[in-house]
Amino acid sequence: MNIGLAAKQSGVTAKTIRYYESISLIPKAGRAENGYRDYSANDVEILRFIKRARSLGFSVNDVANLLDLWLNKSRASASVKAVALKHIADVEQRIDELQSIRDTLKNLTQCCQGDDRPDCPILEGLAGLAGAEPQPKGQKKSCHK
Question: pLDDT of 84-97, one tens digit each?
Answer without folding.
Answer: 999 999 999 999 99
